[in-house]
Design a protein that fits this description.
The complex is a heterodimer of chains A (400) and B (154). Chain A is α/β, with parallel strands linked by helices. Chain A has helices at residues 12-23, 59-69, 111-115, 148-152, 202-211, 249-263, 283-293, 342-349, 377-399; strands at residues 4-8, 27-31, 73-76, 79-87, 90-97, 121-122, 132-133, 165-171, 173-176, 180-182, 199-201, 226-233, 268-272, 295-297, 303-305, 310-315, 322-327, 329-334, 336-338, 352-353, 359-360, 365-367. Chain A contains nine helices and 22 strands. Classes of the chains: A alpha/beta (400), B mainly alpha (154). The structure holds flavin-adenine dinucleotide and iron/sulfur cluster (2 copies).
């Protein structure tokens, strides 16, 4: 019997699992709900200064290319799993695909984007092979009439009347690699996110620096020169049900500050933190350098007031007490929270969740990457491969 | 304040933790959000919730219990609302005040006075919220002099 597997989610963990499974001769259906694979990491910026900073962002395009080239991996974008039945070794799954935009017809010419008044058709990430429709912005999905993009498309790839597709598959095993959600910074009202335009998240800084060459992050000519990074936003926080370290925020924040400074040497940065997690490849050296280049303030601010400059209220260097300080940009180092569809996937796949809400695997259904808890890109990729390796051994045991 | 190793009492933190309200003190990880949001710290930086917790955890029993700072808290619960570890510092202060009285560091009457002032502040806050809720356009209808007279017993 030729074995086959379903991998749900095309982030680093899903890509790693798919490649490992396919490498063992297993047919892989890689299901991705968005219009492109790559996950969150595909939107991040390469943080190299004069030298590589080992942030792993570049691993993702490499792995995307590998899955596209692998004959045993079938990539199904805009697709969701809607039903799963059966038992370990034999699952029947039903998939559903939104076919408004047919990726096989799209040649990424970009005419749709020019035509759209809402900029709702775009490339999800720089490695996307076709455009996608952002349902949150597209007028059609909020009930209005519009077909400007469909009319602009020279290949007929966009058609709002094309029905979706639904079909069944039989697979021997399932890997759930549905990833995570960056913590929703709006929940920390007092830190001003969503109220003050110059309070942004680490994700937004990643994306902005990926889009541009310099430090004009809002595209209006203004450049930040005095940046505050607030650590542990949505991590190690019992009140948010996130009583864990997200493992990635110290690293990306320090590297982003280094990149800002590399692009604009006059940039100052101050880190408001409780303690810095210094583990990980190449990170101790980065931290040592950062200690020389930036200021470290051991205290998380309680409140930020808006204005031309942002005013942070914090407990100054331990013991000196309450202090205020102004900065011109605040970056909230948001952590890793369970993916928004975790509860639904747990129900669909009959999986349990841990105390923080992350998925736990069971026989025949494996959980990989940040779907199971905080990990960085290389850890997620490795975890996907490791999980697949375990699944292969189990499967061979059953067949042999 | 210097830390004299000989006077450190390693049992102090367990006693505070055993006191109603003090249970969570040991999980504090010194993030400083309590101090950063405290209206008293804003006026008098010598009053520092994070530092008081550190002193308790270190076992600085005498310094903490005899300190005037213990009595500056206005029970606004801001620190408690902000703390990511649910330490409930407002209750910790209550526990420390209890211990200070029981162990003879302050006269019991002092505690009564402070509690009265606390109650007044709660009433003031309630009145302000009520005034704001009843008439959104004129929250300044409050009569500060009247309230002052009330508390000074005129
Ligand atoms: C602000 C920020 C910055 C970061 N910077 C770095 C960094 O510089 N370096 C680093 O190593 N790590 C960084 N990380 C961590 C990194 O994002 C993660 O390690 C990585 O994205 C995890 O990969 P994943 O495959 O587990 O999940 P994800 O990247 O979340 O991918 C999951 C994929 O599954 C898809 N999916 C979800 N549900 C379904 C479903 N039901 N059906 C089909 N598909 C589904 C999603 O659309 C997505 O494509 C950062 C994290 C944050 C929050
Ligand atoms: S806010 Fe809570 S965890 Fe942070 S220092 Fe204060 S008591 Fe400790
Ligand atoms: S309850 Fe007391 S310690 Fe806490 S913020 Fe208010 S005044 Fe400060």
């Amino acid at each position: 019997m030729k074995a086959s597997a379903l991998v749900i989610g095309g982030g680093p963990a899903g890509l790693g699992a798919a490649l490992k499974l396919a490498g063992a001769g297993i047919k892989v259906y890689l299901v991705e709900k968005e219009g492109a694979v790559g996950g969150w990491g595909a939107r991040y910026v390469c943080k190299a200064t004069d030298s590589c900073q080992q942030c792993s962002a570049c691993l993702i395009p490499k792995k995307i290319q590998e899955v596209y080239q692998h004959p045993l991996v079938e990539i199904l974008t805009n697709t969701q799993v809607v039903d799963v039945e059966g038992e370990p070794g034999s699952f029947q799954v039903r998939l559903q695909r939104d076919q408004t935009l047919d990726p096989t017809l799209c040649n990424a010419c970009g005419r749709c984007l020019e035509a759209c008044p809402k900029a709702a058709v775009d490339l999800l990430n720089p490695w996307a092979v076709s455009y996608r429709i952002d349902k949150e912005r597209c007028k059609v999905y909020s009930g209005e009439d519009c077909d400007l993009c469909a009319r602009a498309c020279p290949t007929g790839a966009i058609n709002f009347h094309r029905p979706g597709a639904s079909w069944d598959l039989s697979v021997q095993l399932v890997v759930a690699a549905i990833g995570h959600e960056p913590f929703d910074a709006r929940r920390k009202y007092r830190l001003g996110y969503g109220r003050f335009p110059r309070v942004i998240t680490g994700l937004e800084l990643e994306e902005a620096l990926n889009r541009i060459e310099g430090t004009d992050i809002f595209g209006d000519g203004w450049r930040p020169l005095d940046v505050a990074f607030i650590q542990c936003v949505g991590s190690r926080d019992v009140q948010e049900g996130a009583d864990y370290c997200s493992r990635v925020c110290c690293k990306y924040a320090l590297r982003l500050a280094g990149l800002l400074r590399h692009r604009e040497p006059a940039t100052k940065a101050t880190f408001y933190y409780m303690d810095i997690q210094t583990g990980g490849k190449g990170f101790p050296e980065i931290y040592r350098q950062a200690r020389d280049d930036f200021e470290f303030m051991r205290g998380i601010p309680a409140r930020i007031d808006g204005g031309d400059r942002l005013k942070l209220h914090f407990d100054g260097v331990s013991g000196e007490g309450f202090a205020n300080r102004e900065h011109d940009l605040v970056v909230l180092s948001v952590g890793i929270a369970p993916s928004a569809n975790t509860a639904e996937m747990a129900r669909l796949l009959t999986l349990n969740r841990d105390e923080h809400g992350f998925l736990k695997g069971r026989e025949g259904i494996y959980v990989a990457g940040t779907a199971g808890g905080p990990r960085d890109i290389s850890e997620s990729l490795a975890h996907g491969m490791e999980t697949a390796a375990k699944a292969i051994i189990k499967l061979e045991g059953r067949e042999g | 304040m210097s830390v004299a190793a000989t006077r450190l009492d390693p049992k102090f933190k367990y006693e505070v933790a055993a006191h109603p309200g003090g249970e969570q003190i040991k999980v504090c990880f010194a993030c400083g959000v309590c101090t950063a949001g405290c209206p008293v710290s804003e006026i008098d930086p010598a009053y520092n919730p994070r530092k008081i917790i550190r002193m308790v955890l270190l076992g600085m029993r005498e310094e903490v219990l005899k300190s005037d700072l213990l009595w500056l808290c206005v029970n606004c619960y801001t620190c408690t609302a902000h703390c990511p570890q649910n330490v409930k510092f407002t209750n910790v202060i209550g526990a420390l005040r209890d211990m200070a009285v029981k162990e003879g560091y302050v006269h019991p009457r002092f505690r009564g006075d402070v509690e009265e002032a606390d109650r007044f502040i709660q009433k003031l806050r309630r009145d302000m919220v009520l005034a704001a809720a009843q008439d959104k356009d004129a929250p300044t209808k409050l009569d500060p002099q009247g309230l002052l007279d009330e508390v000074t017993g005129k």
